[in-house]
Each structure stands twice: as C-alpha cells, then as structure tokens.
Amino acid sequence: MRFNIKVIADLLGIILLINGGFMALCIPVSVYYKESDWLAILIASLITIGSGFLLRLVKRKNQNKELKKKDGYIIVTAGWVVLSLFGALPYVISGAIPSFGNAFFETMSGYTTTGASILTDIEIVPKGILFWRSLTQWIGGMGMIVLALAILPFLGIGGMQLFAAEAPGITPDKLQPRIQETAKRLWFLYVGLTLAEAVALYVAGMGAFDAINHSLTTMATGGFSTTNDSMQLDSPVIQYIVIFFMFLAGTSFTLTYFALKRNFKKVFKNEEFIVYTSFIVVITIVVTVALLFVQDQPLETSFREALFQVVSLVTTTGFVSADYTAWAPFLSVLFFILLFVGGSAGSTAGGVKVIRHVVLFKNSFLELKRQLHPSAVMPVRISGKAMDQGIVYNVLAFIMIYILVFLVGVVLLSAMNVEFDTAFGAVATSLGNVGPGIGEVGPVDNFSAMPMAGKWLLSTLMLLGRLELFTVLMLLSPHFWRKR
Amino acid sequence: MRFNIKVIADLLGIILLINGGFMALCIPVSVYYKESDWLAILIASLITIGSGFLLRLVKRKNQNKELKKKDGYIIVTAGWVVLSLFGALPYVISGAIPSFGNAFFETMSGYTTTGASILTDIEIVPKGILFWRSLTQWIGGMGMIVLALAILPFLGIGGMQLFAAEAPGITPDKLQPRIQETAKRLWFLYVGLTLAEAVALYVAGMGAFDAINHSLTTMATGGFSTTNDSMQLDSPVIQYIVIFFMFLAGTSFTLTYFALKRNFKKVFKNEEFIVYTSFIVVITIVVTVALLFVQDQPLETSFREALFQVVSLVTTTGFVSADYTAWAPFLSVLFFILLFVGGSAGSTAGGVKVIRHVVLFKNSFLELKRQLHPSAVMPVRISGKAMDQGIVYNVLAFIMIYILVFLVGVVLLSAMNVEFDTAFGAVATSLGNVGPGIGEVGPVDNFSAMPMAGKWLLSTLMLLGRLELFTVLMLLSPHFWRKR
Ligand SMILES: [K+]
Ligand SMILES: [K+]
Q1: Contact assignment for A360 to B400 by CB distance below 8 Å
Q2: What DSSP letter does each residue of A45-99 carry, written as one string?
Q3: pLDDT one-digit tens code per residue, B320-355
Q4: Does B317 count as an annotated binding residue?
Q5: First CA to last CA across chain B, in angstroms?
Q6: Chain B: nearest CA to A394, how far in angstroms?
Q7: Under an 8 A CB cutoff, do B417 and A365 touch?
Q8: How far is the CA of B221 from the centre of ligand 2 (A)?
Q9: Closest Cα partner for B346 from B147, B179, B148, B158?
Q10: Cα separation of the two ends of chain A
Q11: ipTM
C-alpha cells in the first residue's frame, strides 16, 4: 500500500462533517428572513454530512494512522476539491445558481478566499444563500491558518519553513503535539477578530446582516460582499474599519497573537511585517499623489480611496471602494502588479507573499555582488539570520513556477477569445486569490461573461494559488505516483 | 587608481574610429543616389573619427595595459552609449531626424539590434542615411558576437559561461590568445552569411539596395527595413529566404561554424539548439492551426505567415510579414510571450535566451522532486552535464531581474499615460531587442507617438537588454564604486 487511503478517506470525511455543520448554520438565517430556501440548504447539509459519514466508514479499528508526506499532498488538494463539490450544493439545489459549473466557480472562489463572482445581481440572492457564500470564505480562511501553520511547512512548500520557524511550537520536519494547541489559539484569535469587526461595523452604522457577512469575508481576505457596490457606498468610518481589519487579516496571525500578548519586540523584529507595512505606506502615498492629479476631490477622499484599494489588493481581499481601473493607465498597471504581492505568510492572504518577494529581491541584489566576488559566500539574510540555500532555491522556484502557471493560464484563457488585458487580469486575480481584475473583469464587473471553459480554468488556478502551487502540481508529476 | 581610465579611453577611441570608418562607407551610397546628404554624413564621420583620435591621445607609452573585471563593465556600457551618441549624428546633421532625442532612440535601437523605429515614412528617407541605419544594426550584431564570445563570460554574466564552455579556445576565467582567432573566424562567418543572404534576396527578385540592407539587418537580428511595409509585400520565396537567415542569425554562431566544418555531432548534441528548433516547430504548428480557424486563406499562406512571425519574434529580429496582432486575442498573447524567448546564446539575438529558459524549466521541475526527497542532490543537467549550482543561481537571478526591470519599465511608461497593452508591448519589445510590440506599437505601427521621456526610457531598456542587464545594473550599484 503506497498511500494510506483509509486515513485519507477518514480525514476527508471529517472535513465534510464539519462543512455540513457549517451549512446547517445557514438554515436559521433562511428561516429568520422567511425564505423558502431553508429546505434546499437542509438537503444540501444532509447530503454533505451523510457523505462524510460514509467516507468515515472506510476506517477500521487499530489501523495504521501514520501519514506520509505524499498522503499530505493528496489530503490537502482533495480536501479543497471535495469541499467545493459539496459546497456548491446549496446554490444548485436552491436554484440561486442553477448551473453546476457556475456554482462550482462561486464555491471554489469562496473556499480559496478569492472572491471572484459570477453573480450579476447579488442583492436579489436570498439571505440564507448569501450567508453560506460568506461562510465558504470564512471556512477557507480557517483552513488556511492550519495549512500555513502546520501542513505546508510539513510538506516543505515554497519557503513556508520560513514562517514555520517563527511560529510557537513548530519544527519544520514533524507535527508536534503543541501544534494543536497553537492552531486552537490562532482560531480563537480568528473568531475573535471576526466578532470584533462585526461589532465595529454594526456600531458604525452597517446593518447587522451586512456587518456579519463583511466581517466573515474580511478576516478570510475573501472579499465577497453582500451588496452590488461592494464598499463603494459605505461611509468613510466603515471604510476605515474595513481597512484596519483587512490589514490585520493580511498579517501573520502568529504575529498578531504575539502583539496581543504584548510581545512587540517579536513584531517589530519581523522583516516580513516591516516590509509589508512599509510597502503599503509607500504605495498608498504614490497612489494618493497620482489621484490628486487625475481626480478633483478632497485630499482625505483621495487618501482613503488609495489606502483602501492598496490594502485591499496587497492583502488579496479584493473589496472595492471605487472603480480604480478608470483612474489612469499608471494606476491600472500598478494595481495589476499589486495582484502579485500577496500579503504575509501565515495570514489568510493568497498570492506570492511578501516574504518571498523579500527573498527574491535580496538574492537578486546579492547576485550582482556575487558576480564581482565569485568566491565569497553571501547568503540571503532574513530578520538577521542567514537563510539555508535550499530554501532560497525553493522560494525562487516557487516564484518562477508561479509566473509559468500565470502565463499558461493567460494563453489558455486568450485561446477562449478573451481579450489581452481581461485575460491578464482574470488569471492574475484568480491565481493570486484576490477577486477583481482588470479589463472586463475589473472592480465593477464580474466573471459571469467568461466562457464556461474559462470558469473551470480559473477555478483550477484559484486552487493552485491557494494551495501554494506545489501541493497541486506535485499530484500532476509522474514522479509522485512512482513507487519508491 | 581604481579604474584603468587610460585604457578605457583608448578602447573607446578605437570603437569610435571603427564607427567613423563605417559611417564613411555611407558617403559613396549617398553620392551614387545623387543625394545632398553625403556632406552631412562626411561631417558626422569626421567628428566621430576626430573624437576617436582625441580619446586615444590619453594613452601613454609603457602604461599598465591590464584590464580588470570592473573596467570591463565600464567599457562595454560606455562603448554602446558612446556609439549611439555619435551614431545619431548623420540623422541630426542631415535633418532626416532633426530632434536629437528621436535620433538617439533610432540609433540606440540600431546598435542594440532592436529595430524599433520612430520614422513614420521610411521610404522618403535618403538612401545614404537608410544605409547608415542598417549598418548600425550590423555593427551592433558584430559587437554582440565578440561580447557573447569573450567579454560576457569574462564578466560572468547570467550564465553566459554556459555558452563559453562550448566555444573553441575559451575558458570562462580569462581571455586566451586564441579568442582573437575565434572572433575573427566568427566575424568571417557573419560577413559571409550577410553576403549570401544579399545575393539570395537579389536573385529572388529584390532590388540590390533593399537586398543589401535587409541582409545587414537580418544577420544582426535587427529588423530595420527599408520599406514601410517591412516584409508584407514580398514574394513567398523572399519570405522563406529571410526566414532561413533569421533562423541562422538566432543560432549560436559557434554552432553554425561547427556545422560548416561538418561537425554535426556537436550541433545535434547541443541542447539549446534542439530546444530552439523544436520550440519554433511546435509554436509554428499551433499558430498555423489557429490561423486556419480565423483567416480564410490557403494552408501555405497560413503556414508561411505563422513560420515567419514565430521565427521573427523568437530570433528577436522583428521583421513583419502581416499584422499579426489583428489575428486573434490568443495569438496576441502568444506573440507577446514570444518577446521573452530571445534566440540562442552566442547569436546576435537579444532577450532572455533559450538556454536560460531551459535551465529555468529543468530547475523548476527538479524542485518538485527535491521537495519529496529533501536530502537527495539533484543538479540541473544541460546536454548531459551537471551544472554548477552557482551558475543555476545566476541564471535564475538573471530571469528575476529581467522581470523586475520589465515591470519597473511598464510602471514608468504607464506613468507617462501610455495605455496598459501598449506599455506592456513597448517595454517587452525594447528590453528583448525585438522591435515590434503590441497595442499602439504593434507590427504595423511605430514609436513616433511615444512621449519623449518614454523614448529615453525605452532607449535605456534596449541597452539594458542588449548588455544582459548585469553589465549596466552593475554600474548603478553603490558596491561597484566602493574601493576594495
Ligand atoms: K480575495
Ligand atoms: K530586433
């Protein structure tokens, strides 16, 4: 037996049970708003829970519980796919999204916390279904915390060891008992921040339903909104609140935990956090200045719009406070590039991640020096520590493969007759789990006009991006399936 | 004395003398066509030769002739800039291009063998000046052969050691006496192929002047044409001849030399050549099939248009046989990506180069394997030989810096209000020394409408791309100017 199929099935079963449980939470919402969809959601929930039980039946007593690396890749990838297959049921059964392809796109966009939508009128969707839509993102964000904390470092994915070394109680090579303790703490933090944002938004004047939904999708850096205008019509205070929580959601949860424990030294010694914050500040200033030239509005409005969009894209949340692609070609290009930044490692953000960019830049500049002095050893240093060359290699390979996957995606999408800028924007925003793109999938548009084949392609890219590429690509490599 | 300024000045003087000599070759052309510009060209030539003499006066007898690595970076970069400053004189003095900024752009585009032009009507430009325009590319190509053969490996630029190891009589660490012999042989080959193409084009029915000019710019992978329609109106036979010579110009000259010596084993063992050829074949088939869907024309026409454009872009020549950006979004995207391929190392082609892509791909796929077996050593193998990890690192850094420079270029150009796709196309085609881009700088357009600041930016990018980035970037690094 090469793979521990029984344990894999058992774990997938557990995932489905949890998912079905979350689904059931939407039934009271539906009932409260007197919508007929409660039945559809109930059926979807029962199918999901039932399938979970069936999968767990595969398990036997006293079986080998050991999981190998290869099992890990399968569980993670299959987990996200299975979630999306069952998560699409409420949309399909209720008829909110009749086509399964569209429903799968919307669900994958949810669990991967991308936030790209095929819904043209969000406000006519029943509340129970909308709540489920927001929950898929929140579940996805929860999954990311444990993934980033424990599973990706265990699989050795693209430099996630970097982050792992910073987390309490974790060594890159094996899962330690303390990991459960740490995961629980960070989940409490995640729940706590979600509640805090919901309360803040409600106090600032947002309706209760919208406040809860937006806080669920903020902390997941998801970006699904319950209104057609996303955050465009909201008050400045609400926008600032959302900015604050998006910023937190794009920060490593471990760091936020340390900050709450008043261990500020850890925070301000963390190079990724410093770069992440400085980058947002610098780009916001640039965008504010650019906006002052092209828009006739008060400084505060320009600053707020700039800050909102920069934070929204850098953290890969994807909320929209204005149609920024209409501002100027310079800002379109800049915001397109921001789709590749990707928040901090250990947050719920998608994309490349700030720490990898830091490694890339440092290594590139070192290479100029290395050329002048070929015999000198010059390791990349992060937060003062010399990095293992193998990890630098891994990070560079990650970024290269990211670019390759991006280009392959653009070629395939353009082969479906999608125009140049739309194809670039749609692929970048899907792979980076951001949400809005440019061109015909810009901030005030959606993905409904994409050809169906394009939707499947983009769903796949969301999954690839969310699972840090290697997890999924590994399964496509013939080497993986070879005995050894 | 940190830099050997006297030898640097002496070498720049020699470069100017040679350049002034080439310039003088245009005087008989001008006289033959009874144009009044012979005087302008004579004056430009005398200024160039005079300046060359002045620079050589700096030299003394018995001085230290030793050149260090740092001197090498300065000579190469300064050489190309000085060439372009003086090479612009014929345009400015004759009034063919009155603005110095425009003339500098056209000249830099010549010496870097880019072929991007600001001339809106090429056919009204006097023949003597047009001949000079073609010659700048041919001189640039000649410079590239010695650069790729000897200087870049000596400076240790981005994996050029790879190619150097294949060239006869060269070791990466120092210039050997045999290098002169090798350079002479390859120059003879360059001259011979240029003559052969000129004769072939003439026999196939092209006028003598056009045949000579097009062969000069083909072998340099330059792409300047003497007609407004580039190669669109030429006969199929002429187009096939040009395709054949573009293919040769994009092949390592060392390999072509071996082939002429009937050492075919060396050729077919060369992994870069195999990938270069297979890539052209595969992409041509894809484009031909795509063209059969979108164009109503015979198979041969579709095949020829596909082959011409693919070879033209992969070899970074940039001749145009049809307005390919109007064909379909898929082909626009594909041709945009081809701007990043960049011919073979050791050819006159610009861009990233096939061999670097091979290293990139192999390393990326190996990284997936390395992840499963972290302790195993898995070097990248090229043509069967394990590559030094330092060189792989250097190649990856090169590609990363290439992408960074590309993105910075796009941001800066878009800040001058150039639209998204035009900015992407203009920067990619300039940095890759190709010539035509997409959008408003597409195959049937030119660069005349670019803002002047954009022209200076693109000129700089052409230089960066031509000199394999590191040569120029090194001069911008504070570390370079520090004593050691
Ligand atoms: K998102
Ligand atoms: K060219």
Answers
A1: yes
A2: HHHHHHHHHHHHHT--TT------HHHHHHHHHHHHHHHHHHHTHHHHHHTSS-S
A3: 988 888 888 899 999 999 999 999 988 999 999 999
A4: yes
A5: 12
A6: 7
A7: no
A8: 5
A9: B148
A10: 11
A11: 0.89
